[in-house]
């Protein structure tokens, strides 16, 4: 008997979800493994974009819980306030793509656990809001995994012009997305956070499908 999902054969449902994807991307994305460090404004939006696009394996790491102040830009619901972010995000992602494999860790990333937490992924995605945490992850990943791509965010605060957002190559395997200047204390709003998250997600998808991240 053919397994079914929502009354439709599983394979037909899966392929129906991928009907509008770019040709030739379904298989490489389904086999890909991405680890996202942080599940806040950047991380939750990046995770949704990757899940909808068909990345088959996501690992999400964040020690925090959802607060009311997160709801202006992070992809959580009022009913999820008080829940661990990783638990709520996994719940939401599976509603967008039930065929994805999601591993979650409610831990703080430190220099002591970077080697273990990022060992099995193809790409590391940085989605912190703390500059010191960003620097710590950059140092750790480039030390332990110098050949592994690292996609980062820097500068998405305020209500500045979104055209100032760019993706730049910082090192041979490090890409930084954002405007490079705006800082969190001036306020974080959904539109610019989502634009920056889109830059990061698109860079990841291009890397996974062996396309140049930047124009040649």
Automatic annotation (TrEMBL):
InterPro entries assigned: ThiF/MoeB/HesA, ThiF_fam2, ThiF_NAD_FAD-bd, Ubiquitin-activating_enz
Keyword DNA repair attributed: no
Entry annotated with the keyword Cytoplasm: no
Domain THIF-type NAD/FAD binding fold: 26-211
Pfam families: ThiF (PF00899)
CDD domains xref list: E1_ThiF_like
GO molecular function annotation: nucleotidyltransferase activity
Key words, A-Z: Nucleotidyltransferase, Transferase
Record's protein name: Sulfur carrier protein ThiS adenylyltransferase ThiF
Phylogenetic lineage: Bacteria, Bacillati, Bacillota, Bacilli, Lactobacillales
């Amino acid at each position: 008997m053919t397994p079914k999902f929502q009354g439709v054969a599983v394979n037909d449902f899966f392929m129906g979800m991928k009907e509008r994807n770019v040709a030739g991307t379904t298989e490489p994305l389904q086999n890909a493994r991405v680890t996202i460090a942080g599940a806040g404004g950047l991380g939750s939006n990046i995770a949704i974009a990757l899940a909808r696009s068909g990345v088959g394996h996501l690992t999400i790491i964040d020690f925090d819980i959802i607060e009311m102040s997160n709801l202006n830009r992070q992809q959580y619901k009022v009913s999820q306030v008080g829940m661990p972010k990783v638990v709520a995000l996994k719940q939401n992602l599976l509603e967008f793509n039930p065929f994805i494999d999601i591993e979650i860790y409610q831990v703080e990333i430190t220099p002591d656990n970077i080697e273990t937490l990022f060992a099995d992924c193809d790409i590391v995605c940085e989605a912190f809001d703390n500059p010191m945490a960003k620097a710590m992850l950059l140092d750790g990943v480039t030390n332990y995994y110098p050949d592994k791509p690292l996609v980062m965010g820097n500068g998405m605060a305020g209500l500045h012009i979104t055209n100032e957002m760019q993706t730049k190559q910082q090192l041979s395997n490090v890409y930084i997305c954002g405007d490079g200047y705006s800082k969190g204390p001036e306020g974080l709003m959904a539109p610019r956070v989502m634009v920056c998250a889109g830059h990061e997600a698109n860079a990841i998808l291009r890397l996974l499908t062996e396309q140049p991240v930047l124009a040649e």
